[in-house]
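User: Hey, my collaborator sent me this sequence without any context and asked if I could get a structure. I don't really work with proteins. Can you help?
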Amino acid sequence: MSVRDEILRHGGARGERWFQAVAQASEAFAEDRERDAIRILRPVQKALPGAPSVRELLGLSLYRAGQYKAAAEELEVYAQLSHEVNQHPVLMDCARALGDHERVKELWAELAEVSPSSELVTEGRIVLAGSLADRDRIGEAVAMLGRRASGTVKRIQPHHLRLWYALADLEERAGNLPRARTLFDRIRRHDASFADVAERLAALG
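Assistant: No problem. I've predicted the 3D structure and written it out in structure-token form, which is a compact way to encode the shape of the chain:
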């Protein structure tokens, strides 16, 4: 079902008006104006509490705004309504930001059980490793990401770069500077503008 059909089904006579509001919020979100998106979506969410796409977009907007508790609430409802796990990595990061590491583990288990796209699983694994590192379990975090980063990748995708970056950061924190340097350089050779990889490499000498 398209977003428009979903909104029209939930919105009844005012469905078209609500859909236009969601489209406006989606545009704001795409332009990194998440606070505008939140402002637009609040009344839509109140009017259409059972519309998954509204909950999802509001949750993502709140996440970008750093409102992790509110974001988690919206995305939990989205997951329940849609029976999807596509936003579980974001939910995991909200839980991590709130210090709820048990919830991070629970969400990871749900994600791993469904085993969706490699990109989603990789994003979830990065968050789980970060949760371990938050609790000074850096060795475990390095091992978790290292197993996935060690293989040959035929076609480099953005999630591979994010995996290598997260692992490089952990290696540096663990004092494994040559390994961190190698990983940062690997990223730079594929995308020199990725995050702050040039600065991280320069700092490592």
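In plain terms: The mean pLDDT is 94. You can pass these tokens on to your collaborator as they are.
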